[in-house]
Amino acid sequence: MKSKIPHNNLDKCTGDGHCVDICQTHALELVPLSENEKNHLSAKGWFNLMMHGSLRMRVVHPDRCTGCGHCASVCHKHAITFEESTIAETQ
Ligand code: SF4
Questions:
Q1: Beta bridge partners of 5
Q2: Whose CA is nearest to atom 8 of ligand 1?
Q3: What is the mean pLDDT of residues 22-49?
Q4: Which residues contact 75 (CB under 8 A, 6 or more apart)?
Q5: Torsion of CA 86, 65, 74, 24, to 10 degrees
Q6: Does ligand 1 lie within 6 Å of residue 81's CB atom?
Q7: Considering the chain, what percentage of its residues have pLDDT values greater than 70?
Q8: Could you tell me the sign of the dihedral formed by the alpha carbons of 30, 23, 16, 9, in that order?
């Protein structure tokens, strides 16, 4: 099944969690950046890391995402875009 799921720009995200809170299917969680991800941050990403900590939104349950777009609409950093993804049928 093809579906559009959110992609989070780790350089723009500040981990405020509004997207996680609004997701009615609980597809999203805040997860700490890995050391590898930290190593690939831009200067802006490092600034956000220093100012806001290391938690960032992740799509931990892509199969639950309906593509409604509410997560992107509440992101004041415009960090969330949508990507085509192939999700395995669960039924
Ligand atoms: S698009 Fe909708 S269902 Fe999917 S993660 Fe965002 S808020 Fe949740």
A1: 83
A2: 23
A3: 98
A4: 13, 18, 19
A5: 180
A6: no
A7: 90
A8: positive
Locate 90 and state its tokens: 């669960």
Query: pTM for the whole thing?
Result: 0.87
28 lines ligand 1 (CB under 6 A): yes
Phi then psi for 31, rounded to 5 degrees?
A: -130, 140
Q: Residue 45, Cα to own-chain centre: how many angstroms?
A: 14
Q: What is the pLDDT of residues 5-15, one digit of tens each?
A: 999 999 999 99
What mean pLDDT is predicted for residues 43-68?
97
Say if residues 38 and 54 touch (Cβ distance below 8 Å). Answer: yes
Domains for the chain: give ranges and CATH numbers: 2-86 (3.30.70.20)
